[in-house]
Design brief:
Largest sheet: 5 strands, antiparallel
Helix content: 25-40%
Distance between the termini: 43 Å
CATH topology of the largest domain: Nuclear Transport Factor 2, Chain: A
CATH architecture of the largest domain: Roll
Number of strands: 14
């Protein structure tokens, strides 16, 4: 999937009610802009390359209280091994403009322009194996070396497809003697997940997590677990229902297992992934969504039943 492109290009409301949080600058401390820039650049490059470990370490303790590392790593589709090596090489091509830093009592706001490789461009997608972690993990050392050389050649010749964003605005807070990026997940949109099976489908079916906090425009990976506890191989199909009805159009299901049928042998288990995003234009009062996935035996799937019913009329 290609979520890493627009992560840097969309920011929801930033600092909000941070004044109530026990952050603050040491009395008389000077603002170390180099430290702010270093931390923020490191975080954004890690975010782009799906380096979950580095990105999470750069986040505030308040954000840590909302999402554990394991939850965060799952949400961003963390890379490791060869996939992370080549993604980092691409992230090094991000070019930051001058940082304008506004100091407040308990945080700093940083504004800047940025140019970054366009991960949705066909040339980059092909070179980076569509950012498929499995395909990237299968690269040999010589293939990795060639790929990284190709990235450098594209940069030197001006052939690297890029996106430009003006006026990026991020906030950082001081924790002890270090700066940390403040994502403010506490004020993000709550997305709850539920599961159900119908027509005596003998499957155990549940979400990996029942609750995710998502900011506007933030692409997030999620998963469900399914296991056939019956005695026969069964093919089933799922559908999703989004609530509340009035806001359903503002939660985008980008990809999910409901688009295909799933077949499980007796005792077989699988993890079923999906990718979703709270729409950039979701209204401020859309603070919570529910997503319910329903699994049916394929021959009893609602659309099939409706088609049969129409044919019998």
């Amino acid at each position: 999937m290609n979520a890493i492109t627009h992560i840097l290009l969309t920011k929801a409301a930033r600092i909000g009610a941070v004044a109530t949080v026990a952050f603050g600058f040491p009395s008389g401390a000077a603002l170390a802009s180099d430290d702010v820039e270093t931390v923020l650049k490191s975080y954004l490059r890690a975010l782009y390359s799906r380096d979950a470990q580095t990105a999470y370490e750069r986040l505030s303790s308040m954000d840590h209280s909302i999402k554990t590392f394991d939850e965060y790593a799952q949400e961003v589709g963390a890379f490791d091994g060869p996939a992370l090596v080549v993604a980092k090489a691409l992230a090094e091509q991000i070019d930051f403009g001058a940082f304008e830093i506004e100091e407040a009592d308990d945080h700093v706001d940083v504004t800047f322009d940025v140019t970054l490789p366009n991960a949705n461009d066909p040339a980059i997608k092909e070179m980076m194996r569509s950012f498929d972690a499995k395909r990237l993990s299968e690269l040999t050392p010589s293939e990795i070396e060639t790929l990284m050389a190709d990235i450098e050649t594209m940069r030197l010749t001006g052939g690297l497809p890029v996106l430009e964003s003006e006026g990026e605005r991020w906030s950082l807070v001081r924790e002890g003697d270090q700066w940390r990026v403040f994502e403010n997940w506490a004020e993000a949109v709550e997305v709850r997940f539920d599961a159900a099976t119908f027509h005596d489908l003998p499957w155990e079916f549940e979400p990996v997590r029942t609750r995710v906090m998502a900011k506007h425009g933030e692409t997030i990976q999620m998963a469900y677990r399914a296991r056939n506890v019956g005695d026969e191989e069964i093919t089933a199909k799922a559908r999703h229902i989004i609530g509340p009805d009035d806001d359903a159009d503002f939660l985008d299901i980008i990809s999910c297992f409901c688009f295909l049928e799933e077949t499980l042998a007796p005792g077989e288990a699988t993890e079923l992934s999906l990718v979703f995003r709270v729409d950039y234009e979701a209204p401020d009062d859309a603070t919570a969504f529910t997503v319910k996935y329903e699994f049916y035996p394929a021959e009893r799937f609602p659309e099939v039943e409706q088609a049969h019913a129409r044919g019998q009329r």
